[in-house]
Amino acid sequence: MNSSWTRFLPGFILKRIEDRHELLEVMDNSGWMMGDQITRQVVGLLVGVWLARYLGPHLFGEYSYAFAMVMIVSPLATLALDGIAIRTMVQDPSCRSEVLGTSFFLMLGGGVFAFGLAMAAILLARPDDRLVHWLVGIMAAGTIVQAFIAIEFWFESQMQWKFTVFAKTSAFLLLSLVKIGLILLQAPLVAFAWAALADTVIGSVGLVFVYRFRGYSIKSWRFSQTMAKKLLRDSWPLFLSTLLTMIYLRIDQIMIGNMIGSGELGNYSVAVRISEAWYFIPVVISSSVFPAVVKAEAVSEDLYYAHLQRLYRLMAFLAYIVAVPVAYFSTGIIRVLFSSAYTDAGPLLAILIWTGLFTSLGAARNVFIVSKNWTRVNLISIALGCALNIVLNFILIPEYGAMGAVAATFISYWFAVHGTCFFFKSLRKTGWMLTKAMIYPKVW
């Protein structure tokens, strides 16, 4: 315990938990995860704000367009193998070399395919825009290097998050400093794409280093066709869900860039950046209470649903606490952070921030869905929301510009999380519970 951050906890807490080794291990890993997320969100937001101010709406729109294109294809590079690979090694640590080797080569192949798909898509979407071709090509190359995140699977299966956090966060902080240096040197836009690629490359090198430092070697990895079939068979629903979610989150930026232009996309992108800055909090809270909800289900159904209702109310409360002040001061927030050049983003942020209500409730609803193992229902909900989002964007963006995309996002997020509950008999009770939470939010 002395090597852990938990040694800094107050003495009365340490005394109560010092003999509970499993709890200490969970707390230690949760702390590293939370620290990593907070660091990335805070530093990423600050550097992102500085970058947006430096580039201006048009060039920042170009950068955001390329980034969104790469993010949409990125699930093809990871194939949602993490959870399945980790579970397999937890059950049988002796299969480490086989699982890691197979995962690595599957993701390497997926990364090559993702790179090719991104390049084909951008050449079709913007055949004459050489700058965006370069931006997408450079950033998409990172999807190939991402195969080395297979190393993370091993450390996570052993609940040793600190090693992967150290490697990747160090790379992230280093490249954040590089981006600041590029801004001060007034570097061209393409330099920031190279910095994004370098972040992935250095993070991967760091993972290899800590893997070897812990006494392991990637030379022992081996590919197994049998293991590949097993991993892909178990991961495909998660992969499809992840792919649809990424399309859902980024397709609006692609459509604004294609249908209106980079200037308006720049304004929309900064509004999205602010509205999404706190999304990791509902995810962390939901993950933390998940074991308690599962245990409550084993005790009684009434206790189970009481826990869920409290979680839904808490999520609604958090969303309102964030949304009300941000919506009221949206234009001022944009001007202070991003300068008056982005003033048009203020009204967009005032509405877009309310999508956090459905994001929070969606994270809480997933606790219920996962505890019931109803992943198919979740997949259908995401697919319906994604389809509605695309249709509404096609209708609203030509008429209302970026505000049309905001409206499409708000409606489709509501529909995917709350509206679809009334499509499934098994989720109708959840739908009414979410309604109650939105009307009567509560801390706990």
Characterise this structure:
With 444 residues, the chain is an all-alpha fold. It has helices spanning 11-17, 21-73, 75-78, 82-91, 96-125, 130-140, 142-145, 150-157, 161-184, 189-213, 225-259, 262-276, 280-299, 301-328, 330-338, 345-352, 355-372, 375-400, 402-417, 428-439. Helix 2 packs antiparallel against helix 12 (262-276) and helix 9 (161-184) runs antiparallel to helix 10 (189-213). The radius of gyration is 22 Å and the shape is globular.
Number of helices: 20
Radius of gyration: 22 Å
Largest beta-sheet characterization: none
Following the backbone from N to C, one meets helices and strands in this order, namely HHHHHHHHHHHHHHHHHHHH
Regions with pLDDT < 50 over 5+ consecutive residues? none
Helix content: over 70%
How many strands?
Answer: 0
